[in-house]
Every structure is written in structure tokens, then in C-alpha cells.
Design brief:
The chain is α/β, with parallel strands linked by helices and 222 residues long. It has 2 domains: 129 residues, Rossmann fold (3-Layer(aba) Sandwich), CATH 3.40.50; 65 residues, Winged helix-like DNA-binding domain superfamily/Winged helix DNA-binding domain (Arc Repressor Mutant, subunit A, Orthogonal Bundle). It contains 10 helices and 6 strands; from the N terminus they run βαβαβαβαβαβααααα. The chain has a 6-stranded parallel beta sheet with strand order 2-1-3-4-5-6, with helices on both faces. Helix 2 packs parallel to helix 3 and helix 7 packs across helix 10. It is globular. It starts with a strand and ends in a 9-residue tail after the last helix. It comes from Auraticoccus cholistanensis. GO terms for molecular function: DNA binding. This is Response regulator. It holds the Pfam family GerE.
Length: 222
């Protein structure tokens, strides 16, 4: 069972997400919070598998809460999925920089939100598919993801790890990558498990952003 915390200052959103996720057989909503300080305190006490956070909350915004829950130096991170109404809001980039495993727009369909929670819980990370290219372009041309602990990447990744990272950046799942490389899915997972610590990141999403920032892959032109 995947344990989920929901934090949003709008009661309608909290109740809607709670009902939506609670209806899934493998998801359990263990708490809801209406502001940032409450979200942080509940997350530290309940240790959910995923914290679904709004960005703009009273008392403490979602970026600050994210940084406290899963930012650099946090020994027992709580994975964060950001839900926002803003598709290219600087707050979104700030949340990803602070360590969030992904974000979705609040108008995503229920199946997409539930799937995103599962992906974040599994350490895969997610970005709304309609925004992925735009988000990565923003990171490459305007922002610096922190922490970036390795300069370049050719010197730390094996040829196979680099190959997998490139396919990951194309949006492929573990199954897709396994089929593309003619290997077992377990082999792909093993490579990913070794790769993430090398790059100093905690999720597949951050690995993809790292790949774009360090020139392992490039953002297509508009």
C-alpha cells in the first residue's frame, strides 16, 4: 500500500484529491494539510511514501516544504509530487530544484494523477507529458539545477549507463529501454540503481534534467 499525504490550501482540492486517490486499491491517504507548516510537520510524523504538495500555501510555500523534506542533505527524504495550476511558473522550477520528484497540472485526469503517485513512490519521477520539453528547455537555458555534483558525465558513466540515460531522456520506461537494448528489465533497473548515486540525484526525473544540463542529450528546437 502506498501511503500519501495531500497538502493544499483549498479544501475542495484536498477533498477531491483525497477521494480520487483513496478510491485506488493500492493508495491510502494518511493525512491532509491546509498550509505549509502543517504539511511539513505531518510529513515528518507520518513518513508517507509520497507527499502531494501545492506550491502556493500559506505559512510556508511548497518549495520550502519540499526542500525540508527531500532537499540536499536530508537523510530520510520524503518523495514529493508537486501539483500546480501553473504550467510554466517559476515556482515549479524552484520546486524541482529543491528536490521534488515531479509535477503535474491539477487538471490532469484522475488516472494520470494516480499513476504519477505510483511512479514517484517507485523512485521514477514524472513531469506532465505536455510540458516536459518546455520544462527541460527552461532548465537548460535559464536555470541551474541544484545540486549538480558532477561536471560533465562521460568520466563517471559507463557506455551502457550513458546509453540508458539517453533513452530515459526520450521518455522511455524500463520496459521500453529493455526492448530497445535487448536486455532484461532487471538489468535496466540495476544500471539505474548504480547510475543515480553517480550523478548525485535521487530520481529518474532529476537524472533526465542532469542529462540535458550536462550535454549528454540536447533539447530539440522549438
Amino acid at each position: 500500500m502506498i501511503r500519501v499525504l495531500i497538502a493544499d490550501d483549498q479544501s475542495l482540492v484536498r477533498e477531491g484529491l483525497s477521494a480520487l486517490l483513496g478510491a485506488e486499491d493500492d493508495l491510502e491517504v494518511v493525512g491532509t494539510a491546509a498550509d505549509g507548516p502543517s504539511a511539513l510537520a505531518m510529513a515528518r510524523e507520518l513518513r508517507p511514501d509520497v507527499a502531494c504538495l501545492d506550491i502556493r500555501m500559506p505559512g510556508m510555500d511548497g518549495i520550502a516544504v519540499t526542500r525540508e523534506l527531500c532537499g540536499p542533505g536530508v537523510e530520510r527524504p520524503v518523495p514529493v509530487l508537486v501539483l500546480t495550476t501553473f504550467d510554466l511558473d517559476d515556482y515549479v522550477f524552484g520546486a524541482l530544484e529543491a528536490g521534488a520528484s515531479g509535477f503535474l497540472l491539477k487538471d490532469a485526469d484522475p488516472q494520470t494523477i494516480a499513476r504519477a503517485v505510483r511512479q514517484v513512490a517507485a523512485g521514477h519521477g514524472t513531469i506532465d507529458q505536455s510540458l516536459t520539453r518546455r520544462v527541460l528547455r527552461e532548465f537548460v537555458h535559464r536555470r541551474r539545477l541544484q545540486p549538480v555534483t558532477v561536471q560533465g558525465g562521460e568520466d563517471v558513466l559507463t557506455p551502457r549507463e550513458r546509453e540508458i540515460l539517453v533513452l530515459l531522456a526520450q521518455g522511455m520506461s524500463n520496459d521500453d529501454i529493455a526492448r530497445e537494448l535487448f536486455v532484461e528489465v532487471s538489468t535496466v533497473k540495476s544500471h539505474l540503481a548504480r547510475m543515480l548515486p553517480k550523478l548525485g540525484v535521487r530520481s529518474r526525473l532529476q537524472a533526465v534534467v542532469w542529462a540535458y544540463q550536462n550535454g549528454v542529450v540536447t533539447v530539440p528546437e522549438r
